[in-house]
Amino acid sequence: MNTERLYLYTRFERFWHWAQTLLILVLLVTGFEIHGTYRLFGFETAFTVHNACAWTWFVLYAFIVFWMATTGEWKHYVPTFLKLMDVVRYYVSGIFKGEPHPVPKSERSKHNPLQRLTYLGIVSVLVPFQMVTGFLYYTYNQWPAFGFAGALTLQVVAVLHTVGAFAFLAFVIVHVYMTTTGHTLTAHIKAMFTGYEDVPRH
Amino acid sequence: MHNANALFPRRQRLAVLALALTLLLPGASAWAAEVPPGATGLVGKLPEHHITADHSKHPALQQPFASPQEVTKACLSCHNQAALQVHKTIHWTWLDPADPTRKMGKGGITFNNFCIAVPSNEPRCTSCHAGYGWKDKNFDFSAQENVDCLVCHDRTGTYKKFPTMAGMPVSEPTKFGEEQFDPPDYNAVAAAVGRPTRDNCGNCHFYGGGGDAVKHGDLDSSLHTPKREIDVHMDVKGANFTCQRCHTTDVHFIAGRTYKEPAFTERKSLVQDDQVKRIACESCHTATPHKAGHKANDHTDKVACQTCHIPAYARAIPTKMWWDWSTAGKKKDGKNYKEKGPLGKPVYDTQKGDFRWEQNVVPEYKWYGGRMDYLLLTDKVDPAKPVEINRVIGSPDDPNARIMPFKVHRGKQPFDPELKTFVVPHLFGKDDAAYWKTYDWAKAIEAGQKAVGLPWSGKYTFVETAYHYPITHMVAPKEKALQCADCHSPAGRLAGVGGVWMPGRDASSAADTLGWIAVIGSLCAVTVHGILRLNARKRNDG
Question: Where are the domains of chain A?
């Protein structure tokens, strides 16, 4: 198979990707311990680590947003419905028949329409949702000072935060699996380490 | 380092530190071990310099005393308001000062599930009354000389009231069981009076219910000279608190009792008001007692300090948890007998029935707003379920309520099945109606009800009851405090306490179910997809 080597992921992009990977995993493991699903580190340690990760991510998120805005990388996350159904069809059937990907990666557009939608949803909805519900959960005692005591209950905030956690866990499972769908099983993962992706030329 | 900071002015600290490092570094660990962990040096000993009178020099106290009342008169010759002050307190009236009907309190018509009630049993019960001669309902509560100054102010440890003489000390050497009671040397005792020590309070309050740790699980003889392990505040090698350090006393009124009115109504600390009564933990520790930013500070709006900091009560001495009067009266070879249990405490006593004792007891937890509601002997109740003699009042919706630990003493006691009221048995006395003389419940109840002036149908049965005590003493060292997961877990200590969302304990089963379906669904989907891809690849390769 002919491939072309493209430099898709810059150093900071790779850094934030793997930093977020670590944060998500640690947040999931400690979060479900706080949730009462199992005992691993002990509640207090889990709680302390969870909060430290949350604030770390908040800072990282600010840098990511700044990076997106200043480098023009935001263009890769503009949603498009063009060829969206082709991509869906590819993953549902074409992939089994050895068909080529309908939207190959390029330096101008490194994410396919399905990725664009998913990542945009995560960065602009799921992450802020978890940050806001997590912040409210943590600062429950300050609600009267914030001026909205009575509008929410701790239970609602807690359940919403848990729902967000499940969404993240489901995303991680599918996302990790999808990395194996490149022209080799590890092509996408390698690219996320090196920055270079070998894109098939048909 | 706290101690060094307090002892030496700033400019000397560097020199001291350098010296300390040179001298102590090799033995630093040994030196550290001598400083009790948690001792901050902020709480000192009770100052003695405010005492301006030497009572041994007062002529009034050097006269011969024929009776304890004469001692009181001598006290009152200078302290002319003292008895009048005591007369207003619950220590004297045994009535809730907040109850205008004068029913609430053991001087009224409340009762418990230990020796049930005072009326008809006075001479025994009132050995712990701060007075002389309350032997029946005709006691003169207005007599100033009947106030017992010495029981609270004796500093010699030799002044003792006899257990069955209505608060009187003996005038001749007398035995009570094995214990010898001698007439007090009133002149010696009076010459040495002072502010009450732990022993003065403890001689009654540690033995409530007629024995060590019977009533309270958090007040017992281990507090006479407690170790840090038993009580961080009273630790004799540490802060060595007297009771009044927290039970702020003002003209003989001692803060802390709770019936209709809470021990404190305002949550204020010394930081906000230097005249605050120090009866609440918050009075000294403030509402944010932990390190700034620590999540534990966010708990103080819902959880009483005691809940985490008194992880168990009766840590040194077993406390009574169950008292079944219905089995009393059994004899062996026609004689009274006692049977000792595994904790060295009686599990059966002919006079009293079956007991259960427990040590290191995990409290029960309830919302508590500082008030208790007590049943009266006139209240009609449904005995189908165990009856709560006192009800803990509190609700998660009350901003003043906190989750508080309780000892619950349960038992069975006589009940009038027709009038649906609890009854007073006449237990103590030399007359034939006294239960401890003839073991005849009917006679005892008839006499008891007569003494308290209440009707009795002539029938009796035994009904299970529960009596609640807030657990607030015996604050444990901080390293023994509860850990998060003790409550923040699905089956933790607060599993039964509603009205508050607790991470780790509470979950939405709908959200969890949907969440796990999504997670497992994703796993299945990618697994199936992967298998199909593998098969497809084999097929295509082949």
Answer: 2-201
In angstroms, rounded to a whole number, what is the distance separating the alpha carbons of residues B158 and B178?
17
> Could you tell me the fold of the domain covering A2-201?
Fumarate Reductase Cytochrome B subunit (1.20.950)
Percentage of chain B beyond pLDDT 70 is: 91
State pTM to two decimals.
0.90
Within-domain flag for B203? no
Whether the Cβ atoms of residue B153 and residue B114 lie closer than 8 Å to each other: no
How far is it, in rounded angstroms, from Cα B63 to Cα B128?
A: 27
In the three-class reduction of DSSP (H, G, I as helix; E, B as strand; rest coil), residue B121 is classed as: coil
Q: For residues B103 and B454, what is the distance between their CA atoms, to the nearest angstrom?
A: 13
Angle at B372 between CA B366 and CA B378, to 5 degrees: 130
The residues pairing with B397 across neighbouring beta strands, listed in sequence order, are: none
Could you say which of A35, A98, A167 has the minimum Cβ distance to residue B540? A98
Which residue's structure tokens are 């500070």? B297
Q: Which residues of A touch B508 (CB under 8 A)?
A: 155, 159, 162
Q: What's the token pair of residue B491?
A: 């089956």
pLDDT, tens digit, 9 for 90 and up, residues B376-410: 999 999 999 999 999 999 999 999 999 999 999 99
Q: Of B220, B183, B181, B186, which Cα lies nearest the Cα of B203?
A: B220
Q: HSE-up of B146 (CA within 13 Å, CB side)?
A: 18
The Cα–Cα gap between B393 and B368 comes to 6
Q: What backbone phi and psi angles, to 5 degrees, belong to B131?
A: -160, 180
Number of domains in chain B: 1
* Residue A43, Cβ density class (10 Å: 0-12 exposed, 13-18 middle, ≥19 buried): buried
What is the dihedral sign for C-alpha A154, A156, A159, A162? negative
On whether residue B412 sits in a domain, the answer given is yes
Pairwise CA distance, residues A173 & A167, whole Å? 10
B498 inside domain: no
Distance (Å) of CA B30 to CA B237, B238, B477, B479, B525: 18, 18, 21, 20, 62
Res A98 pLDDT > 50: yes
Q: Which of A34, A140, A170 is facing B522, going by the closest CB pair?
A: A170
Banded model confidence at residue B19, pLDDT cuts 50, 70, 90: very low
Are the CB atoms for A168 and A130 separated by under 8 Å?
yes
Span A47-83, pLDDT tens digits: 999 999 999 999 999 999 999 999 999 999 999 999 9
Distance CA B444, CA B424 (A): 8
As a whole number of angstroms, the distance between CA B491 and CA B480 comes to 20
Residue B498 three-state SS: coil
Place of tokens 């400019």: B11
Q: Given pLDDT bands bounded at 50, 70 and 90, which one contains residue B43?
A: low
Tell me the C-alpha distance between B306 and B233, whole Å.
13
Looking at this predicted complex, what is its ipTM?
0.96
The rounded distance, in Å, linking the Cα atoms of B233 and A88 is 69
pLDDT tens track for B298-354: 999 999 999 999 999 999 999 999 999 999 999 999 999 999 999 999 999 999 999
Residue positions counted in chain B: 542
- What is the C-alpha to C-alpha distance for residues B328 and B451, in angstroms, rounded to an integer? 22
Q: How near does any CA of chain B get to the CA of A44, in Å?
A: 6
Residue B234 lies in a domain: no
In this predicted model, what pLDDT tens digit does every residue of B119-162 receive, in sequence order? 999 999 999 999 999 999 999 999 999 999 999 999 999 999 99
Q: Does A56 touch chain B (CB under 8 A)?
A: no
Tell me if chain B has a CB within 8 Å of the CB of A38: no
Contacts of A154 (CB under 8 A, 6+ apart): A137, A140, B501
The beta-carbon neighbor of A173 closest among B505, B516, B526 is B526
The answer to whether B184 and B150 are in contact (CB under 8 A) is: yes
Contact between chains at A95 and B485 (C-beta distance less than 8 A): no
What is the domain range of residue B447? 319-487
